[in-house]
Design goal:
Layout lengths: L29 E5 L4 H12 L3 E6 L2 H13 L3 E6 L5 H15 L4 E4 L14 H28 L4 E6 L12 H20 L5 E8 L5 H8 L4 H10 L9 H12 L10 E4 L7
Parallel strand pairs: 1-2, 1-4, 2-3, 4-5, 5-6, 6-7
Helix pairs in contact: 1-8, 3-4, 4-5
Length: 277
């Protein structure tokens, strides 16, 4: 199996990473990112660290999480790994508590961890459904519930960002439970945004389209013709290519930064125009 190199016009290609600005947008802030060891989570952790955030890397993958923290520390940043099963209420509470104790506050909660389930509903087992909802929805609920009290107690409040999906905005075939979980995450973000709009907490959702991540490659590998599946993903993008984790990280950075201080209750598509169709 091999995935073909993308061949798109230069003006549609992903731009190279921009130089880090001298004025760091997250300086003095602490951030907890779930699912931070790979894909969008990893790109966001590196981006947030370069912008001055002190990080808690909350993830089940211990080796990858520790390696990410070392990379950030070697680059002059601050990061600490906490093994976290986001489906566990206790693990979420422990990670939030670690952030508050280690850095004195939790300024940013980025619930990014997620899994897929590409099965029709009658073919989905109870265990598969419960596991997906535990990670994709209950994990966000547990983390947000644990983060709200310390954020309310902080004079500067805080901000939350939940990774949903384009499928939280428009449905797709063969993934009803996944779509349901992401739609629920979008509405959770909107509801919390209204509940805490006057109390110093902003809440938004990030809705990536088809992004070139390890999870997407693993999913494509399960198809009968992985190369054809990959070509179909690219062809589905109005912009002419797949998105990158770094592009999602740029959007996430903006949403959690003070530049977006008047933005709350938004579900922002980062999808190359997919939901515009």
């Amino acid at each position: 199996m091999c995935f073909r190199e993308r061949n798109v016009p230069s003006f549609l290609a992903a731009e190279p990473a921009r130089p880090v600005a001298e004025l760091k947008r997250l300086a003095g802030k602490s951030a907890l990112i779930t699912g931070a060891s790979t894909g969008i989570g990893r790109a966001s952790a590196l981006r947030f660290a370069r912008e001055g955030a002190k990080l808690i890397v909350a993830d089940l993958r211990e080796e990858e999480g520790e390696s990410l923290c070392r990379e950030i520390e070697q680059g002059g940043g601050h990061a600490f790994y906490v093994r976290t099963d986001v489906a566990s209420r206790a693990d979420n509470e422990r990670a939030i508590d670690c952030c508050v104790k280690r850095y004195g506050a939790i300024d940013i909660l980025f619930c990014n961890a997620g899994i897929t389930l590409a099965k029709l509903l009658p073919d989905s087992s109870d265990a598969e459904i419960e596991h997906l909802l535990g990670v994709n929805l209950l994990g966000v609920i547990h983390a947000a519930r644990a983060a709200i009290p310390p954020m309310l107690a902080q004079p500067r409040g805080g901000t939350m960002l939940f990774t949903a999906s384009k499928t939280g905005l428009v449905a797709q075939t063969d993934s009803p439970v996944y779509c349901a979980s992401k739609g629920a995450v979008v509405m959770l973000a909107k509801s919390l945004a209204l509940d805490y709009a006057t109390r110093g907490i902003r809440v938004n959702a990030l809705c990536p389209g088809i992004i070139e991540t390890p999870m997407l490659r693993e999913f494509a590998a399960t198809r009968s013709d992985p190369d054809a599946a990959w070509r179909s993903y690219e062809a589905a993008q109005p912009i002419g290519r797949l998105g990158t984790p770094e592009e999602c990280a740029d959007a996430a950075l903006w949403l959690v930064s003070d530049e977006a201080r008047f933005i709350t209750g938004v579900a922002l598509p980062v999808d190359g125009g997919f939901t515009a169709m």
